[in-house]
Amino acid sequence: QEGQLIFHVGPGSCCVCVLRSDSNICISAKAKTCGECIQIGPQCAWCKDPVSYFVYKGFKPSRCDDRDSLEKAWCSPHGIENPRGTVTIDKNKPVTNRKIDGGQNLITQIQPQKLTLNLRSGESQKFTLKFKRAEDYPIDLYFLMDLSDSMQTNLENVKNLGTELARAMQNTTKDLRIGFGSFLEKPFIPVMPTYVKNPCFPNNCTAPFSYINVLNLTDDSALFIQEVSKQKTSRNLNSSEAGFQAIMQAAVCTEVIGWRNVTRLLVFSTDAGFHLPGDGKLGGIVRPNVGKCHLENNMYTMSNYFDYPTISQLVDTLSDNNIQTIFAVTQQFRDLYQELSALIPKSAVGTLSTNPSSVIQLIIDAYNSLSSEVILENSRLPEGVSISYISHCKNGVSKKGENGRKCSNISIGDEVMFDIEITAKGCPSKGKSETIKIKPLGFTEEVEIILNFICECECHKDGFPNSPVCSGGNGTLECGVCRCNEGWLGRLCECSQDEVLTEDLDANCRMDNKMDICSNNGECVCGTCECKKRDNPEERYSGKFCECDNFNCDRSNNKLCGGHGRCECRKCICDANYAGSACDCPLDTSTCLASNKQICNGRGICECGVCKCTDSKFQGPTCEICPTCPGVCTKNKDCVQCRAFGTGDKKDTCEKECSYFNLITKKKKEELPEPNDQPYINHCKERDANDRWFFFTYATKSDSTIEVHVAEELGKWKMK
């Protein structure tokens, strides 16, 4: 039966082991196919052996179980399907310093570069990534500057930035390219025409604009100085600027700006705050920013069409384009941009000053701070897939959880390691392969990981369509079981779908949604239990789920229901005047009647035909014996006297009133029973009608009979 295992333990003998389905997830999950079984968890395996091999004398173990249990259930070693996950490294270039080969950048900072993981549900696959901060790594630096009139001094400091910055960063990289862009404000505020052309009127300055790409990234520092020197400041009517628009365009217009696949730095310089989404309503602009490039002739043309981008848009855009941001701001707004930086990974904040060299030092310090920290991020994971990180940083420091993604204080040439574990649950993406990527934030290199999901067993490929085993061809014999054709149901595809109400036929054969089908006492045929027969025709299973029988009730005196009832659904139905789980408790109280016709002499209760004395002084079958009570001798002396000597007050009624005991005579009193000869014995010494002593004993035997022993020899007369 399902849920049981049977195997030989010796010649001519066998043992049946019953599996507890409530503690075995492989069985309790009720997998119907090999694919369903292996998705339960890595501990579950499937037996694909044919039915004739996997059934022994009517016992059918679950095909889905742990490997050891399947082997004990006589599943052959080759019949066990238990696929395991694997990790394959497809591309594994070692980490390197910079090398020149035909002018191409061949630096590798992360290893390996590509892997393939075969994932089985619940079974984690682990691999290790190595990161090494390379020497002389190329840098693209784009300077994005607020050209409001209050930034005039800072503009002058930037004009000579190209040559001095290249010289200052020689120890970091010899491959530096710099570019320049400027921003101001959306020109939507209604003003006089004169102000639109020259907001500094009557003085001369640049007309208002949102964002201009002044100079693409270049290694020509002289050109940088030349173009920046041409820039003029302007004015706007409020303190907040269109900086977020400028950052968005500088990030997404990759080809226009000229970003390479190297370290990308964006230096954002301002002495003001920033506009947020919704501020565009001041000019009737309500369309949300779409985060696409809208530069024509290096100028942002959709300023009056799209609103300002959100902070979350900036975070995603900067991350997707591997851009590290340095906010170079005045002291007044440092706290504001510090809060913004906390929301943007791989960003830093520095303070502007009037010292020309301060800008260069600010950039160098911020770059060193950003590049000394490695933070791994992964692309979106398929539903049902999880990932975890453990970092192994400098000085033997290891971290888990979110901190397992990062290592800090990394110098050029340092190597750090990350242990990565990926786990799938069930069969994500319906078994289709997925590709995810892991990359260090702010770097363009990434690791490509192909995820294959093990959703079916190998035996799935070897199915036998229209197999005769499946009710004459109603299904495919696959992995030892039938996968039914459309319109057929059942374990052997024996049920027409038109004739049943549900596809889960076994569900109709399980009582209270338990695991056992037909209570393990029958077969489920098209959703109905057919109870199996017993060798003894008097014994039978019954009930909708074969949950009842007429032979598994309590016994008494080796008799079913004590011989005083019948067994129905494993419970005794007792005959009249009988009770108890085995009908072994008679309800007749006649056996509890005392000589005074009271039940248990009024000193106890009658349970199952036996007195239980409630008065501790009384004993005996009917609670009439009281060894410590006075008067036993006096009460019975007249009857003893009349029967033993024919004298006394009851000599005329002796036969009628005194036949309740057995009389045994002895010659002398010394021959009377001793106290230990029998239980409950009373020794009596009484006077007869002639004032002479006579001696007797009074005792109640175990069979409730009363026995009196009398000495024929009388004692002396009483002296007067």
TrEMBL record:
It is a single-pass type I membrane protein. GO terms for biological process: cell adhesion mediated by integrin; cell migration; cell-cell adhesion; integrin-mediated signaling pathway. Keywords: Calcium, Cell adhesion, Cell membrane, Disulfide bond, EGF-like domain, Glycoprotein, Integrin, Magnesium, Membrane, Metal-binding, Receptor, Repeat, Signal, Transmembrane, Transmembrane helix. Residues 633-716 form the Integrin beta subunit tail domain. PROSITE patterns: I_EGF_1 (PS00243), I_EGF_2 (PS52047). InterPro entries: EGF_extracell, EGF_integrin_1, EGF_integrin_2, Integrin_beta_N, Integrin_bsu, Integrin_bsu_tail, Integrin_bsu_tail_dom_sf, Integrin_bsu_VWA. GO terms for molecular function: C-X3-C chemokine binding; collagen binding involved in cell-matrix adhesion; fibronectin binding; integrin binding; laminin binding; metal ion binding; protein kinase binding. PANTHER family: INTEGRIN BETA, INTEGRIN BETA SUBUNIT. This is Integrin beta. The lineage of its organism: Eukaryota, Metazoa, Chordata, Craniata, Vertebrata. The gene is LOC109075519.
